[in-house]
Amino acid sequence: MRNPDWTTLPTNPMERISHLLITNEVSDFVRLRAVCRPWRSSTAAMKSRIYRLCPRNWVMLSNPNSSPTAVRFFNTSTHKSFSFNLARYLENYSLVQSCDSLFLLKHKLSEHFALLNPFMRYITDLPSKVESNCEEAPLQLDDLIHKSRFSLSSVIVTLSSTIVLVSKFMNYLAWTKPGDQSWMFGEFKVQCSSNVLFYQDRLMAIDYAEGLVQINLANEIVNQPQVEVVIPGKNLSNLDDARYLVDCGEEIILVTFMPDDAEKQHFWESFVAYKLDLKEETYDLATDLGDRSIFIGENRTLSVSCDDWSSVPANTIYLCDLYYGNTACYNLGTYRIKYQSHKPFLRPSSLVKELIKYCLG
Are 18 and 29 in contact (CB under 8 A)? Predict the structure, then answer.
């Protein structure tokens, strides 16, 4: 019996397979396209769909400025890794900022900005003009990025193809779509006391006065998107100590801590974690993270699946702090907390240490 020729797989099944791969794991889609020319041709239309090209759950573990020829990515859910050569793109572009799984570039000759997806090797040109009703809004994207009050922290691509530039404290947003001639720019009255979390196509943060707030990015963004209250502040206790929102699989975890005012050797004395219920607008004490662990930095948070990954202990919170130079490791099951210095923390090859470095970055 003759072996089947997989290169002649019909277009419809190939598109279905491609759709499943992109939805679950974009790196597998890249490998599929690398098999042969017919498979690349039958998936060309899907590759050009911008809203499919923002890889989820990938974090950048290496510094692209120090090692542009081998930028390493790690998937927090599947534990897969991916290496990318950025150096060849830096012949024509300069790197403005790297944000998790995307690169914001600036062309050296035209000075136009572009967004690079390393998995698809796809470059999306971005407009230079900025439109806004705000008096302090810059007129050009270059001025916005270098505006000290904006403090660009991340670049997001939503499921509706919208590209969003997020400021550190969510007080400013800039957004556009491929093909648009300009950026829209908005200022928001958010007294942000936590990090900004991108969760299920929504930007979320803890507001001192209002509680858990969001900007919905799933629908078409209008001229001036409004801040919505998801969980009122009266339903959340100890907002003064609410610091970190974490996307923990299918749940949002709110981590609070009590400062150690007595010894001043460490900034933390104890941790409390809550599971937020967006439908009921309430929260419950989280005593078990299952097979996941949480890593927290000043502006970055992530959770990692520890299933079949012995080097990362499950049900643990790692809180990294540059000011005190320590990492707190807290186990929710035993209620024990350990403090260790960043420098001698575990072996250089440890995944835990790499994830700590990522959060500190």
Answer: yes
Helix axes 26-33, 11-24, angle to 10 degrees: 140
Q: What tokens appear for 47 in the block? A: 């590759």
Residue with tokens 């509680």: 211
> Is the Cα torsion angle 261, 267, 269, 274 positive or negative in sign?
positive
- For residue range 163-179, what is the model confidence (pLDDT) as tens digits? 888 877 667 888 888 88
Distance, CA of 328 to CA of 10 (rounded, Å) = 54
Give the phi and the psi of residue 31 in degrees, each rounded to 5: -65, -35
Tell me the per-residue pLDDT of 306-348, one tens digit each, with 9 for 90 and over: 876 777 888 888 887 655 567 888 888 887 887 766 554 444 4
**Amino acid letter, 352:** V
3 state SS of 22: helix
Please state, in angstroms and rounded to a whole number, the distance separating the CA atoms of residues 40 and 33.
5
Assign residue 209 a region: left if phi > 0, alpha if psi is -120 to 50, beta otherwise? alpha
- In this predicted model, what pLDDT tens digit does every residue of 93-104 receive, in sequence order? 999 888 778 899
SS3 191: coil
What letter does residue 266 receive in the DSSP assignment? S
pTM for the model: 0.79
Q: Helix, strand, or coil here: 28? A: helix
Name residue, tokens 């299952």.
290
